[in-house]
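Minutes, project check-in
Item: structure for the 236-residue chain
Input as provided by the requester:
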Amino acid sequence: MRSALKGAVPSPNIWQHTATYEVENRAVDPDGRLWTTLAGLAGPDGWRGRRVLDLGCGTGFHLPLFAETAGQVVGVEPHHDLLALAARRTRRLPHVTTLAGTAQAVPLPDRSVDVVHARWAYFFGPGCEPGLAELDRVVAPGGVALVVDNDGSRSTFGAWFRRGYPHLPAPSEIERFWATRGWTRTPVDMGWRFESRADLEAVVRIEFNATVAEEVLRHHEGLEVDYAVNVWSRRY
């Protein structure tokens, strides 16, 4: 695969396993709890008629969903091949634009977006301050930024996440980081639901190293996983 832009933070799951990550996207939030929460936090009418930025849009999975009601949608992605897939996915949607860029250098003018969506992309707590500064620049007054991240303090997936990434900051440290910068936490129990056991196993294996993946799969049955996330939101 071609290189990403300088400053991009590698995402081994989607960068190296694009097709399997598509399976994961389809399994996320099967009952729409996360999507409903995001729309509610965006405002009384969600993102209807507004300018939406999907920051770290990957293959553009969510761009058509935003485009159903948004006035304008921009997907920004640092990885060239993923960006090409996003462009192809949205080529028949005239009010959707895809651009190469990073969270630290968003290729948009000041105060040019109303809603920012970042899902498991760059904004993981300590260290993302340059991206937060860019949000301060590009979000218009009255706008909102919405960041989705794992909640490692609870749920079956949260326990897997703590086991798989012990080097990451503790959940309490991440919560302090956001809270002290004026962001609000909204917990959501969204869940994973797969169509087959093979799909679940394939996704687990791109999210964790082989040892952790085989251990959690050995002790987990079925096609569903209870999975908690935090939505961090800030109004401008």
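Outcome recorded: The beta strands are 51-55, 72-77, 96-100, 113-119, 139-150, 184-189, 192-193, 224-225, 228-235.
No further action items on this chain.
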